[in-house]
Specification:
It is built from 16 helices and 18 strands. The chain is an alpha/beta fold. It has a six-stranded mixed β-sheet, covered by helices on one side. It has a five-stranded mixed β-sheet with strand order 1-4-6-8-10. Helix 8 runs antiparallel to helix 11, helix 8 packs antiparallel against helix 15 and helix 14 crosses helix 16.
Length: 576
């Protein structure tokens, strides 16, 4: 019963801390959901617009400001059809609305003229009809495009609506140079010239307004353009992809191409025009002023971390509403998928491969900590973030993303990012991460490799076992049940002494005190056979002194201590 209570408490804490739990009623969310209900969405691009989560700041294609108010809706070129809804007028702080290149029909809602914050409106290339609402702001200030909607009418379009008087054609141009003396003719010419100039100004105003807006908002210059038309925007050796290029590669971010979902967004499999397979990570984050510069800086830092055991960043895409990273496609997926999601037709990871994964991922993390300036703290080391190439070589992925997503505070990180069961206790309690938090996550990943188990699994309660993998492992060590600890998929095809060594490394990495944990460079040396025996012996002697520990009797398992209560204390105060 106590374990069930603990599990329920942990789940409650997850829901409490997770941002998706903030589902307070929101009129903007209601308005956008009403829009979704009125549209046909053949590609399911609005799938994330969950009506039970009426705060729209968690939805794709929607961007909010710091006050959780919608400022951007970007739904251009996504095959939507149907009609717009008057509820769009509820988006009082909306600055950008892109609905171009769809098949939208019906009238433009009159309520749009009430959005005084609107800075960009693109409804071009649809099937909209009827009069364009106008109170003067559309034609004089807002950069707009209603192009290629042949059934639209009104002063802004230059096409009279049925039943309305036709517009007077602009007077012919009268050259003022031929006027030699003041008089009635010259006055007429001046008036005609003034009218012509006024008409020209009326039709030029959107372009002038757009140019003024571009100068007034210099931080918002990252518009989606084809990569070949924007050669000057590069970060190191990275390629600047256009949004259209990645939409084509992923079949408009089709659900069938989703490789995985995580705290940073979704990952899609894609094929570029040259045939290369890529993984496109579509980031979902809170936007803040200056975010573009921060994004550039952090992406550049990620691209400079080059190591055979680190996932190489191939390119990026940046628009006012999208942030995407492009990586090489990893043919064998992640360690987690190979351990727990492999089809029956594929063989399990053998023991020698698991050892290579252990040391390869350790080398990658050691490079991030000791050879990058500034050092990169991963903050979410787990089996799902260790990828496998064609040769089953370990490649650490998602490094640098935790910092990249933290726009508000670039010096001290206080937002806990990570996965329950992998989070170091000091990181959970203080919000401060260090390389030693990565060491803790690596130790848990080693236990995943050895056991095939999840770091946090409520299913273990059915056998009255611990839901936390580390506690479950310690319980089996206490009972000296090493055979029950090793992944059954290995079918006893492993070297027991090597399993013992990896468990020792894992336990050294997951000590409660970060000061006691080894550095990743030390972990690499221990896995290569240098210093593990000494480190383990020092650890056990310290435990004897501090906790009056008795060593196990001699034998094949003389490295295993008698009681998990006498192992270095481990407490997890609560999940993320």
């Amino acid at each position: 019963m106590e374990k069930w209570v603990l599990a329920l408490f942990l789940v409650w804490l997850i829901l409490l801390v997770h941002p998706l739990s903030k589902i307070a009623a929101n009129t903007e969310g209601d308005a956008l959901h009403n829009l979704r209900s009125n549209l046909l969405d053949p590609n399911n691009v609005l799938q994330s617009w969950d009506p039970t989560l009426v705060n729209p700041c968690t939805w794709f294609h929607v961007t909010c400001n710091n006050e959780n108010s919608v400022i951007r809706v970007d739904l251009g070129n996504v095959a939507l059809s149907g009609e717009l809804v008057p509820d769009l007028g509820q988006l009082k702080n909306l600055q950008y609305l892109r609905l171009n290149n769809n098949s939208l029909s019906g009238p433009i809602p009159l309520s749009l003229i009430n959005i005084t914050a609107l800075q960009l409106l693109d409804l071009s290339n649809n099937r909209l009809s009827g009069p364009v609402p106008d109170n003067g702001s559309f034609s004089l200030f807002t950069p707009i495009s209603f192009a290629n909607n042949i059934d639209l009418c009104g002063p802004v379009t230059g096409k009279p609506c049925p039943g309305s008087p036709p517009f007077a054609p602009p007077p012919p141009f009268v050259p003022t140079a031929t006027v030699s003396s003041p008089g009635k003719s010259s006055l007429t010419a001046a008036i005609a010239g003034g009218v012509a100039a006024g008409a020209a100004l009326l039709f030029a105003a959107p372009a002038v307004g757009f140019a003024y807006w571009r100068r007034r908002k210099p931080q918002e210059f990252f518009f989606d353009v084809p990569a070949e038309e924007d050669p000057e925007v590069h970060l190191g050796q990275l390629k600047r992809f256009s949004l259209r290029e990645l939409q084509v590669a992923t079949d408009t971010f089709s659900n069938k191409n989703i490789l995985g979902r995580g705290g940073f967004g979704k990952v899609y499999k894609g094929r570029l025009a040259d045939g290369a397979l890529v993984a496109v990570k579509r980031l979902k984050e809170e936007r803040t002023p200056g975010g573009e510069l921060q994004f550039q800086t952090e992406v550049e830092m990620i691209s400079m971390a080059v190591h055979r055991n680190l996932l190489r960043l191939r390119g990026f895409c940046m628009t006012p509403t999208e942030r995407l990273l492009v990586y090489p496609y990893m043919a064998n997926g992640s360690v987690a998928s190979c351990l727990r999601e492999r089809p029956p037709s594929e063989p399990p990871l053998d023991w020698s491969t698991r050892k290579r994964i252990a040391i390869g991922s350790a080398r990658g993390l050691s490079y991030l900590h000791d050879h990058c300036d500034p050092k990169i703290i991963h903050r979410d080391v787990k089996a799902a973030n260790i990828l496998l190439d064609e040769e089953f070589e370990a490649v650490v992925g998602d490094f640098g993303l935790a910092k990249l997503m933290d726009y508000k505070d670039t010096h001290v990180t206080t937002a806990v990012r990570g996965t329950i069961g992998h989070i170091a206790p000091e990181y959970l309690s203080t919000g401060k991460s260090s390389e030693k938090t990565d060491v803790f996550g690596y130790g848990i990943m080693l236990l995943e490799l050895i056991t095939g188990q999840r770091a946090f699994d409520l299913a273990r309660l059915a056998n009255d076992d611990d839901v936390m993998l580390l506690d479950w492992v310690k319980g089996l060590l206490k009972e000296k049940k090493l055979d029950m600890l090793v992944d059954p998929d290995l079918q006893n095809n492993y070297v027991e002494t090597e399993v013992e060594q990896l468990i020792q490394v894992a336990l050294l990495c997951t000590q409660s005190s970060p000061m006691d944990r080894p550095k990743m460079s030390e972990v690499v040396r221990m896995l290569e056979g240098d210093g593990l025996a000494e480190k383990w012996d020092e650890w056990q002697k310290a435990e004897v002194i501090n906790h009056d520990l008795e060593l196990a009797p001699p034998g094949n398992s003389d490295w295993i201590v008698h009681s998990t209560d006498k192992l270095h204390p481990f407490e997890l105060s609560g999940p993320r």
